[in-house]
Design a protein that fits this description.
Aldolase_II/adducin_N; 7-stranded mixed beta sheet; Aldolase-II_Adducin_sf
Length: about 250
């Protein structure tokens, strides 16, 4: 849990303020890890107790400038639900809103244009089972063909259809989309897929990779839970990264 270190606005519930702080911390963690893309890309989080409302970054600010107080609260139709002076990037709203609308189990969505993520999404065959982290995702990643910048509502139906029952998505020629029931769960999934992509890039640059056999992948996925820290998927990992961010700057809490 991200604990409060600044007074929350009176109009914001305790639950929303905690969600705001957790999401703001995540933006700072992403920046620390080198996953910022100028003022673009998005991480969204549902507002607790408000199924049709979610928080998104203010368009025009760098990830390193995001704070709990300047996150924008919008509904799934794109209407602002607070008095934020900042606009919302339509490319972010269209993609995230369609998933928040149709996937009740998805509370957090992360989309990035990391070099490794974009490179693997642009490779024929996509992610390959050739390293530890890639084996986590074998058979669990959906793909969606590139249709240009995601600003048209009608693409939403195809995004949902191509995702199906999966909760990890590689947008071909575009990048990573990670989804989770909680923000820490989405974070650890994004982190692991990013690592898988980085290692695939390094491996393919050296020659022919060793492919892990399907029966070994099945055992690996079966046993992964035994290597997790108690407390929920990604909880300890995300908390550790927030502590690292706090050593440099705590302004995200404001």
């Amino acid at each position: 849990m991200v604990t409060a270190a600044a007074d929350k606005p009176r109009i914001v519930t305790d639950a929303e303020w905690e969600a705001r702080q957790q999401l703001a911390a995540c933006y700072r963690v992403f920046d620390m890890l080198g996953w910022s893309e100028m003022i673009y890309n998005h991480i969204t989080l549902k507002v607790p107790g408000e199924d049709h409302a979610f928080l998104i970054n203010p368009f025009g600010l760098h990830f390193s400038e995001v704070k709990a107080s300047n996150l924008v609260k919008i509904d799934i139709d794109g209407n602002k639900l607070d008095d934020s002076p900042y606009p919302v990037n339509r490319a972010g709203f269209v993609q995230h809103a369609v998933f928040h609308r149709h996937l009740p189990d998805v509370h957090c969505i992360m989309h990035t244009h990391t070099t490794a993520g974009m490179a693997v999404s642009s490779l024929e065959g996509g992610l390959q089972p050739i390293n530890f982290y890639a084996c986590n995702f074998a058979g669990q990643i959906a793909y969606h063909d590139f249709e240009g910048v995601t600003v048209r509502d009608e693409e939403g139906a195809r995004l949902v259809a191509n995702l199906g029952d999966k909760r990890m998505l590689l947008l071909r020629n575009h990048g990573i989309v990670a989804m989770g029931r909680t923000l820490p769960e989405a974070f650890i999934k994004h982190w692991s897929l990013q690592r898988a992509c980085e290692i695939q890039l390094a491996t393919l640059s050296m020659g022919k990779p060793l492919t892990v056999a399907p029966e070994v992948v099945a055992v690996h996925q079966r046993d992964l839970h035994m290597a997790q820290v108690p407390g929920g998927a990604g909880a300890a990992d995300f908390a550790a990264m927030v502590r690292l961010v706090d050593r440099v700057d705590t302004s995200w809490r404001e």
